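WARN no homologs supplied; continuing
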Amino acid sequence: MTAQEMAKRQETSPATREETRSSGRVMIPAVDIYEAEDHLTLLADMPGVDKEGLDINLEKGVLTINGEVRMANRGTSLLREFSSANYYRQFKLSEHIDADKPTAALVNGVLTLRIPKAESAKPRRIEIRH
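OK structure emitted
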């Protein structure tokens, strides 16, 4: 396979793993994902991120979470032993979700994202007629 063919294949192939490439240093937030009958719930710990610094994107089955940590300016730094970094995480999601109806809340640095399942993915009870 030539280099051109490889490059073309990479452009058209969907990502099969979590991508964490970014121009700067990033931290991967700790995430818990729970499944209920009609939705998925994702909890992500992102201390230091506020609502204005949070970007959640769901496109082509890939959920991307970006969180910008904004440090308070306390004056001229004489000694600095603590530094912060932004958060970044991606997940490949099933096609059995309703991408038009997710809801999100950010409280005390904990992101709660609720993504409903598509009707076709919800369990159904089949009635017996005879």
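The helical segments are 3-12.
OK
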